[in-house]
Amino acid sequence: MDGNMKTVLIVRPAPLSREIRTAISGDGFEVIETSFAEGALDALAVDAEKFAAAIFELERMTEDARHFIEVCKGSSYTKEIPILIIADRNDVGFQTECYRLGVFDFIEKDLPSDIIRLRIHNAIDHSVLALTRKLRHVRDYDQVTNIYGKHHFFEVTAKMLQENQGVDFAMVYFNIEKFRMLNSFFGIEEGDRFIRFIADILREIGSRNRLFTYGHMHADIFAFCASFMKHVEITAIVEYIEKELSHYPLAFNIVPKFGITIVENYEEDINVLYDEASLACRSCADNYLKSFAFYQKSLGEQALKDQYIANHMAEALADGQFRVYLQPQYDIRTNAMIGAEALVRWKDPVRGMISPGEFIPAFEHNGFITNLDYYVWDTVCALLRRWLDEGRKVCPISVNISQVDFLNVRLADTFIELTERHKIPRELLELELTESAYTSNPVVIMDTLSFLQKSGFKVLMDDFGSGYSSLNVLKDLPADILKIDMRFLSDSKIPGRGENILASVTRLAKWLEMPVIAEGVERKDQADFLRGIGCEFVQGYYFSKPMPIAEFEKLGSQVAEREESAARATINADSLWSATSQIESLFSNILQAVALFEYDGETVRLLRVNDAYNKMFGYRDVNGIQDEALSDVSPEDLPEILEAFHQTARSRGTCRCEFRRLLNTGSVIWLQARLKYVNTIGGNDVIFVSMSDVTQQKELDFELQRYRVALSGSGQRHDTILIIDDQEINRAILNEIFHESFTILEAENGRVGMEILAKDEGKVDLILLDLVMPEMDGATFLKRVRGNPAYAGIPVIIITAESSAWQQNNALEMGARDYIVKPFIPAVVRQRVKNVLESTTRVAEQLRDYEPEEGGNNT
Amino acid sequence: MNREDFMKYGINFDSGVNRFAGNEALFTKFLKKFVDDPTFSDLRKAMAGTDADEAFRQARTLKGVVGNLSFDDLFEKLNPVVEALRAGDLDTAKTLFPAVEAEYERAIEGVKQIG
């Protein structure tokens, strides 16, 4: 709830019972107590924003009370604060008068304290005031972190800049490298917790700095705008954030990247500043050496360096200042060399060795990288030709392709031309592309790589884990070999966790028949570990540094073939069934819920699941659920899932779908399933499925959808009520109460109710729903209605004979907006219906203010 | 029959009419229908058995009807039975049930006077 709304005004003389006071203050509300004489109205008027409700006990109408209610309701500042009166339930005349004056609701005095508490809560939560404020909050604040979202951050930042012209400001954009990896390894919940942790750091910095705005933009992206006297103050903030992040207790190497731009024009569109900062951030992404960068125009040190590089690069290339170095790759079992990666070094006559971390990003930025890459490819091809001529035993050499190279539409021809010109077998020239590049321009890159693969080149996916591919889309990417950087998980704070992940990746890769090369191996223990998990191919300082060609040639003769891994041969289809196989540990080590299914064209059988799957669904083990693989799936979603299985089996590819599933605990979650064809055994298709819980996201979508539905219907008058109750007398009474002002539709159970909704789509404005009914009870009906976006915006009020707070609360939790208790009291029934309809209208009005265009598109 | 007559049979005429939004005819129509309403006999059957849950369901249904018809005295006697059954205590409910039956007979007798 909005931080402002934390106070309840209680008006004496009659002091509230201790139970009520405890209930209110126990829920975090502050209580201000006053009397009509002491200026209850003033208290309210002075600081209206902070009040969630005004409550007083009243036996009969008094002058003071009437005056209070009238003034309160007559002022635009206070009219939306709900007034609750605690009174004797039987005085119908008095209640009617109160309602007429604008009292929100009554709390009957003789009710148990937990029900009193519930009614207070319902009033506070559903009053127009709360909804208005909540909506404002949703717009202004990010829902995960509770700090400003992008829109509001831009607003307050623009205001700050305008009001403080002459002060120096910097806009900083930052994100977390491989954040998606974190999400997929540890789950979205853990990801959200981490995001909140970042928000807390910003909040804390904000509390110490006066001119400082900040917000959560999206996913792992944050931004802040800070004033400064010297540049180092900005980098100090950046370093402080880095330091705080490094303390985060998660077995994941958290690498933030910052982009900084200096504000020069106080009237500048914040979008421009934001883009500049994000460009600067991108300039240091995928670079181990740099955690932040200034936007070029601010002419920081970086810009000067880049300028030097740009001025000298062409000359350096012509001069032969760029040298190709080779770093050998070994088979860890035999210590035989199986290949090498070609790297580039720049020896500048003035500045000496310039680090690739400095010039590669600069070249990628200015496009010169294509020249340098071609130079390396050509050099390597020439080298391979010479070795062949000299009769050496030759191993494949891998060269790097940059994302920018794909701008050349004839890239594939270039490689073919090179290998033909130098007359070298294509399999000797291996091509490395970083995983992140795969996602940058998918169509072009996928097509080119597939073509190169077909032409006989081997493609290596470099820095696996730095990009977004989840493990199970791996098979569909055009890559023959995976390269994983050991540095990726080396900073694990939980011993063994990083290793487990690496082991899982290795096993899955093997299962996909993809060799893995571990690079960045620097210590003996890492080498031993890799040997242990069956990762045979290694590259790194522990084995050999990158070295000039002449030095490399001296290593000479120990070159061996890159053999098929032994473990790979042992993974066959049968092992999928065995609980002791490697698949078992593969399954156990993946933190995402995964399962293997068998599909015979009609039915789906569960073969194996991992621990994460059991944890998600609350099963203790797989036994006993074999034949009911989809029994807990929501019936409405079943056809879609079967279709997904069908598709996957037919295309022998992948497919994804979303569905609802009932948990053992009785709650329903939304799942996103990614299906992947594995193989076919005995006429049945084996399909690998990974699932992630997307409930939160769905609920948010759903909430928006509901608002939009409410919005689209808001132009009409509220005039139709659907009454669903199996007892004629209840329907008759409600009909009698409402028939003068509303059109009444009646249904004797939930099933008939659904039929009426389907028939009169868009017509029903409110549903009064009994819970205990034959055929389809109220709970089932409510679930169906809430599950269908077309009806979900229709408010529901529950009719219940139950006076227990638990039951009533349960109704509210199921998504009902309020409840009425039998026997009916017409004044109460009318008021609750009025409250619900009014707040629905107001929500729609608020929404119209906030998203006029979307609203317009929906009507 | 006037409101005092109804009161003699434990029926709160004013609150009943008010509940039916002032429609006296509709209220008395439903009062009369109650004579043939199976809810009470269903409860009586359940009370003779051993299934406390079933008895609870029936008692709760009856409570809703009785409350809406403003059978105040019957409602008052029925409430403790509902609560006992909610707790699964069929034995206590059985000891309380004769008082409910007596009130029921009295209410029916009153309804039959309406004519």
Major β-sheet annotation of chain B = none
Overall spatial form of chain B: elongated
Count of DSSP helices of chain B? 7
Structural class of chain B: mainly alpha
Instruction: Tell me the span between the first and last alpha carbons of chain A.
Output: 30 Å
Main pleated sheet of chain A: 8 strands, mixed, barrel
Q: Average pLDDT of chain A, to the nearest integer?
A: 78
Strand content bin of chain A:
15-25%
Main interface by residue count: A-B, 18 and 20 residues
Provide a descriptive summary of the structure in words.
- The complex is a heterodimer of chains A (859) and B (115).
- Chain A is α/β, with parallel strands linked by helices.
- Chain A is 44% helix and 22% strand.
- In chain A, helix 9 packs antiparallel against helix 10 (231-246).
- The longest helix of chain A has 25 residues, at 826-850.
- The model of chain A is unreliable at 562-584, 620-627 and 850-859 (pLDDT under 50).
- Helix content of chain B is 77%, strand content 0%.
- The mean pLDDT of chain B is 90.
- The interface between A and B is medium-sized, with 18 and 20 residues.
Summarize the structure.
Chain A has 859 residues and is an alpha/beta fold.
Keywords:
heterodimer; A: 859 residues; alpha/beta; eight-stranded mixed β-barrel; five-stranded parallel sheet; disordered C terminus; B: 115 residues; mainly alpha; elongated
Topology:
The complex is a heterodimer of chains A (about 850) and B (about 120).
Chain A: E1 7-12, H1 18-26, E2 30-35, H2 40-46, E3 51-57, H3 63-74, E4 83-87, H4 92-101, E5 105-108, H5 113-126, H6 128-140, H7 150-163, E6 168-176, H8 179-186, H9 188-208, E7 212-218, E8 221-228, H10 231-246, E9 256-262, H11 270-283, E10 292-294, H12 301-319, E11 322-331, E12 336-348, E13 352-354, H13 356-366, H14 369-389, E14 397-400, H15 411-421, E15 429-434, H16 435-438, H17 442-454, E16 458-462, E17 481-485, H18 497-511, E18 516-519, H19 524-532, E19 537-538, E20 547-548, H20 549-555, H21 566-570, H22 582-589, E21 593-599, E22 604-609, H23 611-617, H24 638-651, E23 654-662, E24 668-681, E25 684-693, H25 695-713, E26 720-724, H26 728-738, E27 743-747, H27 750-759, E28 766-770, H28 778-787, H29 789-792, E29 796-800, H30 805-813, E30 818-821, H31 826-850, H32 852-858
Parallel strand pairs in A: 1-2, 1-3, 3-4, 4-5, 9-10, 12-14, 14-15, 15-16, 16-17, 17-18, 18-19, 26-27, 26-28, 28-29, 29-30
Antiparallel strand pairs in A: 6-8, 6-9, 7-8, 11-12, 11-19, 11-20, 12-13, 21-22, 21-25, 23-24, 24-25
Helix pairs in contact in A: 1-5, 6-31, 8-9, 9-10, 12-13, 15-17, 18-22, 25-31, 25-32, 27-28, 31-32
Chain B: H1 3-8, H2 13-19, H3 24-33, H4 39-48, H5 52-68, H6 72-86, H7 90-113
Helix pairs in contact in B: 4-5, 5-6, 6-7
